[in-house]
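Chapter review: from sequence to fold.
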Amino acid sequence: MRRADGSAAGRAAVSALRAAGFRYSARHHRLTLEGGRAVTLPFRYVGADPDAGPNYTGRPAVGSYYTAC
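The token string follows.
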């Protein structure tokens, strides 16, 4: 996850997700939310980069770009 200017937004995203009630396991790359509820996050999707390269498993990945709301 990146900001529109290309800088990393991972820490900000994890902080926003935790504030919304999610749990994140960096070891397992797992995001969890117990119970159903509406969630509003302070990010807006602005595009993707299909040439981002491999993800942590080595498989092809797409880079996602967001701006703060």
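Two observations follow directly from the output. The two ends are 15 Å apart (CA to CA). The chain has one domain: 2-68.
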